[in-house]
């Protein structure tokens, strides 16, 4: 069967995988990124988009979501193939290369692999209230892919973090009406966004939780309850958006025959794992003196990529030269 063979595939499109993809492009490698989330950016986007980072070289302070946007722009300069919403489940050897099989059954063929999986694949934290699972993807959502699908809808947004508050602020102008419930009075979201929310037309109810979602072929209503008094309220709604955070799990990666230490993959000074042509970098790898920081993670992935290049093409130097001496294609986006 015909398949496209890539030189290098990054499992994880967090900051480390993104910078690695840029570097691989710089070295002229056919590059792919796979991530389980619907968007690139890893922890920067999933866990703390509105927090400032102060220890990125060259950025005295930068919002995590802005740093992610810069990294994405940099990473896509050489147009790598990006596969989102695919969780890498298996890593197997076929002839002279590796095959990564994802939970969708898709097979990705690649000569080298760099695992930049952080703490593991992120999946949305699910709510086990009545009716929620029945309507998942059809009236109940764990994220927003296409904003306009909520145009003129009556929305219920659940959660108290940045995602919940940001989506409420983004969606209320196009929705018919928007209600946000949170199980505590205090929000975890950025203060400024919470202030904006409270001044907006969004109806905010705390401390409320979701008890059940009802409907026939589509969602028609949601029952919420005050978690101190247990008093219930019935809201007519067309869609429920749950933003309850993410859980991360290395999961299947643990079965790939990699040498592990706790929840991290052991690497040597060239970021090599015990499997040939398989590297690891960033939060998901470990060695003596390992620091889980952005500055060190991007350095590690540079070493991994340049070594992978040299391994595939022994004529190519490990040291790539200085980017300031190169002519690069223009930035897009
Ligand atoms: C609240 C908070 C504040 C922080 N502040 C700072 C700071 O100020 N300075 C600093 O240097 N660091 C900070 N960090 C740490 C920093 O965010 C991490 O070091 C960095 O995100 C690691 O990047 P990564 O690419 O290795 O992993 P991640 O950002 O975790 O990205 C990993 C990606 O891999 C994907 N993935 C995992 N497994 C699979 C799979 N099997 N298939 C497909 N995709 C998969 C995940 O979905 C995820 O998108 C902070 C972290 C947190 C939580």
Describe the overall structure.
The chain is α/β, with parallel strands linked by helices and 333 residues long. It has 2 domains: 198 residues, FAD/NAD(P)-binding domain, CATH 3.50.50; 119 residues, FAD/NAD(P)-binding domain (3-Layer(bba) Sandwich). Helix content is 20%, strand content 29%. The chain has 6 helices and 22 strands. The strands form 6 sheets. Strands 1, 2, 5, 6, 7, 8 and 21 form a 7-stranded mixed beta sheet that branches. Strands 10-17-11-12-13 form a 5-stranded parallel beta sheet, covered by helices on one side. Helix 5 links the parallel strand 12 and strand 13. The radius of gyration is 22 Å and the shape is elongated. The model has no long low-confidence stretch (mean pLDDT 95). The site of flavin-adenine dinucleotide has 37 residues, from helix 1, helix 2, strand 9 and helix 6.
